[in-house]
Amino acid sequence: MKKITSAFLAIILIIFSQGASLNVYAEGFVYYTDTKQIQRIAKELNELIEKYDADIDFASLNEEDNTPITDDGVYTENDFITARLIIHTDKKINEFGAIEHIFGYDDIHILRYA
């Protein structure tokens, strides 16, 4: 009887010790998948910027009002404010004619308009 009780307690100890470590494994997995999602959305956002804003030199600023200068003129702040819309929702959204749509980490949608 003592052997059966000892074996039973040993099994219970093993199960409970593994249960505590499973939380650590799960947290590591969540961190890994979050990192992958963040990397994917960052890559897609970089591609979107390169595609539509490649001609803008963000390092050169107009001295009067700190707006970016390009070869063919000066961009105003409104050019950037109206170009992209960032939405945080877990529901399906209407894109309203967006030319690009990036969906990613934590239910964030980035819509690009012409």
Cα-to-Cα separation, first versus last residue? 79 Å
DSSP strand content: 15-25%
Radius of gyration: 26 Å
Chain-averaged pLDDT = 76
Shape: elongated
User: How many domains make up the coordinates?
Assistant: 1
| Strand ordering within the main sheet | 1-2-3
Instruction: Tell me how many strands there are.
Output: 6
**Total DSSP helices:** 2
Parts with pLDDT < 50 across at least 5 consecutive residues: none
> What structural class do the secondary elements suggest?
alpha+beta
The biggest sheet amounts to: 3 strands, antiparallel
How much helix is in the residues? Answer: 40-55%
Report the order of strands and helices: HEEEHEEE
Description:
- This protein is of the alpha+beta class and 114 residues long.
- It has one domain.
- Helix content is 49%, strand content 22%.
- The protein contains two helices and six strands; from the N terminus they run αβββαβββ.
- The strands form two sheets. Strands 1-2-3 form a three-stranded antiparallel β-sheet, with no helix packed on it. Strands 4-6-5 form a three-stranded antiparallel β-sheet, with helices on one face.
- Strand 5 (100-104) and strand 6 form a beta hairpin.
- 2% of the residues are buried.
- The mean pLDDT is 76.
